[in-house]
Design goal:
This protein is mostly helical. The chain has four helices and no strands. The radius of gyration is 17 Å and the shape is elongated.
Length: 108
């Protein structure tokens, strides 16, 4: 195997690892967002856990974060929580993604 082939293989492995960590961080962020949203709408215990799982599942509807955002926004609106703005939700999503990525990078 030439040096070029080894280098190419190393880049492919790094890319695969980066994508896996990105997927895990997004799933963890969605669970945390689900937990936060459950608190906002008054769910606790098993109901909150089930809701958090439903937020994670919502991410598989389409590429990107809009499907998760729409679910959370719709559920907050349905429970009369219009005081939580779209910007608040997006900021929470960003903060939780950074938190989740840091946890994964740290091996938690």
């Amino acid at each position: 195997m030439s040096t070029f082939d080894k280098r190419e293989e190393a880049f492919e492995k790094k890319y695969a690892l980066d994508e896996e960590q990105k997927f895990k961080a997004t799933a963890r962020r969605n669970r945390k967002l689900g937990t936060w949203t459950a608190e906002q709408i008054g769910l606790s215990g098993a109901e909150a856990e089930a809701y958090a799982k439903s937020v994670v599942a919502a991410d598989f509807e389409e590429a990107g974060d809009d499907d998760v955002f729409r679910k959370v926004r719709g559920d907050l609106d349905a429970k009369g929580k219009q005081s939580i703005s779209d910007a608040d939700i997006r900021a929470k999503m960003s903060a939780l993604l950074a938190e989740a990525a840091a946890e994964i990078k740290a091996g938690k």
